[in-house]
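Figure 3 (text version): C-alpha cells given as input.
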C-alpha cells in the first residue's frame, strides 16, 4: 500500500523472493459507502511514505487523547465534547448527508481513506506485544463507539445492515406469539410495542445470556434492539482482536522492510508517551518578561522536572551535565535569550570563578543555542528542548543527578514529598498520582497535577469559550506545561496564543 520512491524501487528489484509476497496484493479502490467500518478489508491502494507516517501520527494523537480521557475518568459526554474539535482537525469522518445529493464525494472518500489506512498502519505498529494489542483494541473500540453514537440514525441503520451479522429481525407475528415470554425475559421493558427484537445464535451474546437479559429459544437469543450498540461493539472488538493476532504473525516479514520498520518502531514508542516536536515559534510568549533575573519568579509555572532542576541548582549552586543540558534546553524553549541564559548560569554557579565558568561551561550553553558548533548543530539554531517522551525514556538519572522526570524516576514517597513541598496537598490528587505512577502513566500524573493547580483558570477559559479543547489537550512537553500555565495564570493580559508544541 506504499508508493515507493525511485531509490526504494531500485533496491526492491534486487530483494529476495520472500519480499515479493508483499507485491501480490490485489489493488482495488475502496468506495467507502459508509462512514463507519469494522475494518475487515485491508487497504491495497498506493499511498506515499509521507502519507503513511502523517496519517498514522494523526490517528495516534486521537488515540492518545482518548486514552488520557479514560485515565482521567472523563464521562462519555465530557469525552465527546473534548474530542470533537480534535477529531474534526486530525481525523474527520463526515456523514453521507454532508455530501451533495447524498453522493459520497471526493472529500468524504479522502476522509474515509485516511481513517482506513491510518487504522491499518497502527495495527502494524501495535500488534507486536500482547500489551500493545490490548491497549490498541481498547482505544480503537472507544473511538468506534464515540463515532457510532454520534452517527446519523439512518446511516447507522444502513451501516449495521451492511455488516451481514446474521441478525434476524423478529417479525410482528412472532413477537406477538412470544408475548409474555419475551417481556418476562427482557428486563426494563413492559410492553411489546415499546421495543423490537432480533434473533442471533445464543453463543454470540454470552454476556446477555449470563446475566439473564434475553429470552433463549431453540438455540436463538432474542435480543432487544437497545442492546444493538453493545453487540456491534463486541463484534468490532472481537474482529479487531483476531486481526491483530494475524498481523502479529506477519510482523517478522516486515522486519525486512527498512523503509517501514523505523516508522513503525517510532509509532509504537509514541504510544507509551506521545511525542511532541518543538519549533522556534513555540517559545514566543507575548508580553512575558523572560530574562535571567526573572527565572525564580517564572519557576512557579515550571513542571515538576524543571522545578526539581531549578531547586537543586539553587541548593547546590551546580548541576551535573545532563541536568544542565535538560534545563538549558528548557530555558531556551521558554524564550530566554543566549545572553540571559549565560548570565543565569554564571550567577547560579556561585562557587566558581569567571575563569572556570568561561572554560568549562560557557561553550556548552552557546552550543545548545547553536551559537557555536558545526553544521551538525542544526544550522545555527541549536538543539530542541526535550519532550516528555525523551526525558522519560532516555538517560535515567544516576546518584547526585537531578535530570529526568520525578514522576518516572522518584520513589512514590519522594515524589509525594516533593509534590507536597510544591503546594499539592489535595489527597485525591496525590492518590490519583500514586495510581498513575504505579500504572506507569507518568505524563498523566503530571497532567493531573497541572489540572488541579489550574482548575479555576481552566474552568474560566472553558466556560467563557476563550480556549477550545485543542488548547487543553494532554500535555506531553515541559515547555507546553510552562506556556499553558503562564497563559492561564495571566489570562487578563495575555493575547490568545497557541499553547501546544507541535505534535
Ligand atoms: Fe516534566 Fe513531562 Fe515529567 Fe511532567 S511528565 S514532569 S513535563 S517530563
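Below: residues designed for each position.
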Amino acid at each position: 500500500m506504499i508508493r515507493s520512491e525511485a531509490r526504494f524501487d531500485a533496491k526492491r528489484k534486487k530483494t529476495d523472493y520472500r519480499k515479493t509476497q508483499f507485491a501480490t496484493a490485489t489493488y482495488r479502490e475502496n468506495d467507502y459507502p459508509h462512514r463507519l467500518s469494522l475494518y475487515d478489508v485491508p487497504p491495497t491502494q498506493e499511498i506515499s511514505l509521507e502519507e503513511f507516517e502523517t496519517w498514522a501520527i494523526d490517528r495516534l494523537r486521537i488515540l492518545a487523547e482518548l486514552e488520557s480521557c479514560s485515565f482521567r475518568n472523563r464521562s462519555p459526554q465530557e469525552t465527546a465534547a473534548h474530542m470533537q474539535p480534535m477529531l474534526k482537525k486530525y481525523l474527520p469522518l463526515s456523514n453521507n448527508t454532508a455530501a451533495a445529493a447524498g453522493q459520497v464525494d471526493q472529500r468524504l472518500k479522502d476522509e474515509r481513506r485516511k481513517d482506513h489506512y491510518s487504522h491499518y498502519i497502527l495495527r502494524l505498529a501495535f500488534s507486536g506485544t500482547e500489551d500493545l494489542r490490548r491497549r490498541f483494541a481498547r482505544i480503537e473500540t472507544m473511538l468506534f463507539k464515540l463515532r457510532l453514537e454520534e452517527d446519523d440514525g439512518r446511516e447507522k441503520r444502513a451501516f449495521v445492515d451492511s455488516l451481514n451479522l446474521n441478525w434476524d429481525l423478529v417479525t410482528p407475528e412472532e413477537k406477538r406469539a412470544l408475548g409474555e415470554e419475551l417481556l418476562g425475559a427482557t428486563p426494563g421493558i413492559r410492553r411489546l410495542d415499546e421495543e423490537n427484537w432480533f434473533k442471533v445464535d445464543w453463543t454470540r451474546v454470552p454476556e446477555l445470556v449470563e446475566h439473564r437479559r434475553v429470552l433463549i429459544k431453540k438455540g436463538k437469543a432474542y435480543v432487544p434492539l437497545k442492546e444493538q450498540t453493545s453487540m456491534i461493539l463486541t463484534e468490532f472488538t472481537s474482529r479487531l482482536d483476531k486481526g491483530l493476532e494475524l498481523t502479529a504473525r506477519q510482523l517478522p516479514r516486515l522486519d525486512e522492510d527498512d523503509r517501514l520498520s523505523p516508522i513503525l518502531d517510532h509509532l509504537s514508542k509514541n504510544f507509551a508517551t506521545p511525542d511532541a516536536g518543538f519549533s522556534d515559534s513555540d517559545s514566543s510568549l507575548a508580553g512575558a518578561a523572560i530574562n535571567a533575573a526573572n527565572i525564580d519568579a517564572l519557576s512557579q509555572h515550571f513542571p515538576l522536572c524543571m522545578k526539581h532542576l531549578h531547586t537543586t541548582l539553587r541548593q547546590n549552586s551546580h548541576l551535573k551535565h545532563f541536568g544542565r543540558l535538560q534545563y538549558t534546553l528548557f530555558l531556551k524553549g521558554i524564550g530566554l535569550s543566549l545572553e540571559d541564559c549565560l548570565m543565569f548560569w554564571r550567577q547560579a554557579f556561585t562557587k566558581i570563578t569567571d575563569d572556570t565558568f568561561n572554560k568549562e561551561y560557557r561553550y556548552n550553553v552557546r552550543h545548545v543555542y547553536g551559537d557555536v558548533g558545526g553544521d551538525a548543530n542544526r544550522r545555527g539554531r541549536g538543539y530542541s528542548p526535550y519532550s516528555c517522551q525523551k526525558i522519560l525514556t532516555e538517560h535515567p538519572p544516576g546518584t547526585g543527578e537531578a535530570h529526568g522526570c520525578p514522576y518516572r524516576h522518584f520513589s512514590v514517597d519522594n515524589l509525594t514529598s516533593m509534590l507536597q513541598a510544591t503546594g499539592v496537598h489535595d489527597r485525591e490528587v496525590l492518590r490519583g498520582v500514586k495510581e498513575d505512577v504505579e500504572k506507569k502513566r507518568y505524563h498523566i500524573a503530571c497532567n493531573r497535577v497541572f489540572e488541579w493547580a489550574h482548575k479555576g483558570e481552566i474552568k474560566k477559559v472553558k466556560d467563557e469559550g476563550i480556549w477550545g479543547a485543542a488548547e487543553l489537550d494532554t500535555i506531553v512537553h515541559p515547555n507546553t506545561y510552562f506556556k499553558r500555565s503562564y497563559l492561564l495564570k495571566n489570562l487578563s493580559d495575555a493575547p490568545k496564543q497557541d499553547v501546544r508544541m507541535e505534535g
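The radius of gyration is 27 Å.
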